[in-house]
Design brief:
The complex is a heterodimer of chains A (387) and B (168). In chain A, a hairpin with a 2-residue loop joins strand 24 and strand 25. Chain A is 20% helix and 35% strand. With 387 residues, chain A is α+β, with helices and mostly antiparallel strands. About 15% of the residues of chain A have low confidence. Chain B folds into two domains: 95 residues, Rna Polymerase Sigma Factor, Chain: A (Orthogonal Bundle), CATH 1.10.1740; 71 residues, Winged helix-like DNA-binding domain superfamily/Winged helix DNA-binding domain (Arc Repressor Mutant, subunit A, Orthogonal Bundle), CATH 1.10.10. Helices cover 79% and strands 0% of the residues of chain B. In chain B, helix 1 packs antiparallel against helix 2 and helix 6 crosses helix 8. Chain B is globular, with a radius of gyration of 19 Å. The chains are: A alpha+beta (387), B mainly alpha (168).
Chain lengths: 387, 168
């Protein structure tokens, strides 16, 4: 091969035009040169060079014009930094976010199976929320506003790595005010209430609560999907209100799900004991149980064997779909990816899948498309669902 | 630039740079130019840290980025004896591809196809007709009912996209 042929070969490799044989040839060549190359570190050279090059690199970076990080919720999911302020520890850990193998099945009649492997590393979900103080003042929270401490009424608030913590400083009734913490689409946030109760907010959710729990009950109001680990306080039952549903707890961990666009309100109990109220109806649920309230109806249905893992997948970084219809899947997607979903035709299929929540929208859709039972077209913020 | 980001980045650098440097020097045969390549790759990584989507490990990403830059470098300097000699030797030996090599080849192809796949349909079509069916600009213009000027622009843009990917 002469110079021109070689040049042409490399050009085709770099432009994606090479044939399989040519690709192999170039890869083999690269490997051969890497192996045959007879250069190696001189004594102490590596350490020396490392320091030198590292400094040069950091200088070079510092000399670049500063970037303005985007704080807004993206119109279509824009991947967030693939490492955040918290993600220190070993740098190696940052990139081992691969969720391993997962399987995507579809069920129709008859059964067919499609397997998709390892969607790989996606993006780190961002944690942002808006805190609304009594009096209406709003404070945006997020990775970029880490570590602030504020005082409100008789309470000290600390915002730290995706979590707001309330530390009571006064029990005076006059000091107690109401705050609201809300998450936008595509974001989760955590909260520790003044009694120590831990709260996880899924996307598009909110919780309204007092800055201190005085009185005979601890009452909060929620919307969307919120998970609680309630601090035990026997003399002061903890009460969650969502829609017309009330959930009364003593000390326990449970998930409340009641998005506006879902047909039912669900409370799933993990540990402890909970009493769910709806109008005149009233049911006690045991751990592992789920109370389901159809919004148009008047009764509470209790399912004793809730699929806890699937229901709590969001808190553990995953979408979990079990025999889910496309509507349910896309409603969840819409809370995470800030999209508007439009259906070109009715899709009659059901899906079983586990998808990490940090996967960009394009990949999320691609994974579903791999079943060949549904297809998508994305136009800006609109996602069109087609058979 | 947050201190924490920089700290994480520095750790990354320390973890990966030596291996990449070693390989690059051996492949292209120049320490200074290898330095440039490694620095460029890391600087680019830093700049793109908010938008990068990795489909495999970071090490793999860095190795591929460095490989592309190295091959680009060689393409520009291919008259140098050492490259041609090795190339011809490898071609003559015609060894069957090891699984590792096959994987690399597949990976390279996939990365490029991904870039091509992301091109707007018209651009992609023009590029394909040009590169795979080897049509002239005039033939493409005629086939698609557009002007030769437009064809030329599409190709330029396509190459620009690919070179951005390649030179990142």
């Amino acid at each position: 091969m002469d110079t021109n042929a070689a040049k042409s070969l490399l050009r085709r490799y770099l432009e994606g035009d090479a044939s399989q044989d040519e690709l192999i040839l170039v890869e083999q060549w690269y490997q051969a040169m890497a192996e045959a190359g007879d250069w190696d570190w001189a004594e102490g050279e590596q350490q020396q060079l490392q320091t030198l090059l590292e400094n040069r690199l950091l200088e070079r970076i510092a000399a670049q014009p500063a970037e303005i990080p985007s704080r807004e919720t993206p119109a279509v999911v824009r991947p967030m930094p693939f490492w955040g302020k918290r993600a220190l520890g070993a740098a190696a850990v940052l990139f081992l976010l691969a969720m391993g193998v997962w399987l995507l099945f579809i069920r129709q009649r008859p059964q067919s199976i499609a397997a998709v492997e390892n969607p790989g590393v996606g993006v780190k979900p961002h944690n942002t929320a808006i805190l609304t103080l009594a009096g209406g003042k709003t404070i945006p929270l997020g990775d970029s506003a880490a570590h602030w401490t504020g005082r409100q009424g008789g309470v000290i608030l600390r915002n730290d790595s995706g979590q707001v913590v309330y530390v009571p400083a006064s029990e005076k009734a006059s000091d107690i005010v109401t705050n609201t913490l809300a998450t936008p689409t595509g974001s989760q946030y955590r909260l520790v209430l003044p009694d120590g109760t831990k709260v996880w907010l899924n996307a598009s959710s909110s919780i309204t609560y007092p800055t201190a729990f005085a009185g005979s009950q601890r009452r909060v109001t929620t919307s969307g999907e919120v998970y609680f680990e309630v601090a035990r306080q026997d003399q002061q039952p903890f009460i969650v209100q969502q829609g017309g549903m009330t959930v009364q707890v003593l000390g326990t961990s449970f998930d409340v799900n009641g998005y506006d666009d879902e047909a039912a309100l669900r409370t799933t109990l993990l540990t402890g004991k909970v009493r769910v109220g709806w109008g005149a109806a009233d049911r006690l649920i045991a751990p592992g149980g789920q109370a389901v309230i159809e919004k148009g109806g008047s009764e509470i249905r209790v399912n004793g064997n809730a699929d806890i893992e699937t229901i709590m997948a969001w808190k553990n970084g995953s979408f979990a779909f079990r025999d889910a219809d496309i509507g349910s899947i896309m409603r969840q997607a819409a809370r995470w990816y800030d999209i508007r979903v439009v259906y070109a035709a009715k899709i009659d299929k059901h899906f079983i899948a586990d998808i990490p929540i940090n996967v960009p929208l394009a990949d999320f859709l691609k994974l579903l498309e791999a079943t060949d039972q549904v297809h998508f077209r994305v136009e800006g913020k609109r996602v069109i669902v087609m058979p | 630039m947050a201190v924490d980001d920089q700290l994480a980045f520095t750790r990354l650098y320390r973890r990966h740079w030596a291996m990449l440097f070693l390989t690059t020097v051996r492949v292209i045969g120049s320490k200074e130019d290898a330095e440039d390549i490694i620095q460029d790759v890391f600087a680019s990584l830093w700049n793109r840290r908010s938008e990068l989507q990795l489909t495999s490990s970071l090490a793999a990403y860095l190795q591929t980025a460095v490989k592309y830059k190295a091959i680009h470098y060689i393409e520009k300097n291919v008259h140098r004896r050492q490259y041609l000699d090795t190339l011809n030797k490898v071609a003559e030996t015609a060894a069957p591809a090891s699984p590792e090599i096959l994987l690399q080849a597949k990976e390279s192809l996939r990365s490029i196809q991904a870039v091509i796949g992301k091109m707007p349909p018209k651009m992609r079509e023009v590029y394909r007709l040009s590169r795979q069916e080897l049509l002239t600009h005039r033939e493409i213009a005629h086939r698609l009912g557009i002007s030769e000027e437009t064809v030329k622009k599409h190709i330029q843009n396509a190459l620009q996209l690919l070179s951005t990917f390649r030179d990142r």
